[in-house]
Specification:
Elements lengths: L12 E5 L17 E6 L2 E8 L2 E5 L10 H15 L1 H10 L5
Parallel strand pairs: 1-2
Antiparallel strand pairs: 2-3, 3-4
Length: about 100
Amino acid sequence: ERIDLTVDPPPDLAIEVDFTSLTDVEAYQLLKIPELWVYRREELKIYLFREDGYQERDNSRLFPDINIKKLFPYHVELGWKQGSSLALRQFEALENFS
């Protein structure tokens, strides 16, 4: 029911889809989530946690061979405009994410 960071490890990835408010990336620092994605205004920003805080990067450490900054926004917008079922079917049909 409560997270105890001394025993519970943080998740490997947090994804914030932000349509109504501005996310303060620093709010995630206490949890020390290794990778944070923030999607806002049809753009995905990838942040990696370092000892001095989050630093924006072009690529995901978790998915280094996948163009996440292109793939993620396309499917989120497709879901919003044409429905999540279509977006999920197209995502599942991808054979090569690069």
